Amino acid sequence: VKFVNLRKFYDDLSLAYDYHIYIEKCHFFAPPPLEKKIKLTDTLCVGYY
């Protein structure tokens, strides 16, 4: 188990604290503008709403 400082994570991604976030493989995301995402690696993305 790895704990993450979520405030720093939100700050690093320039997201407001009231956004809901989820992390999954990028190929599962719908194309923009249907889903908002930030690419973390070649295969992992953060989605937010």
Question: What keyword list fits this structure?
Answer:
alpha+beta; 3-stranded antiparallel sheet; 3 strands
What does this structure look like?
The protein is an alpha+beta fold. It is built from one helix and three strands. It has one domain. It is 14% helix and 29% strand. The chain has a three-stranded antiparallel beta sheet, with no helix packed on it. A hairpin with a 4-residue loop joins β2 and β3. It is globular. It starts with 5 loop residues before the first helix and ends with a strand. The mean pLDDT is 93.
Topology summary:
Blueprint: H1 6-12, E1 21-25, E2 36-39, E3 44-48
Antiparallel strand pairs: 1-3, 2-3
Brief account:
The chain is an alpha+beta fold and 49 residues long.
**Share in β-strands:** 25-35%
> What's the number of domains?
1
> What order do the helices and strands follow?
HEEE
Main sheet characteristics: 3 strands, antiparallel
Roughly how many Å apart are the termini?
Answer: 25 Å
Q: Tally the helices: what do you get?
A: 1
Q: Mean pLDDT across all residues, rounded?
A: 93
Q: Strands of the biggest beta sheet: in what spatial order?
A: 1-3-2
Proportion of helical residues: 10-25%
| Unreliable sequence segments | none
Radius of gyration: 11 Å
Shape, please? globular
| Total count of strands | 3
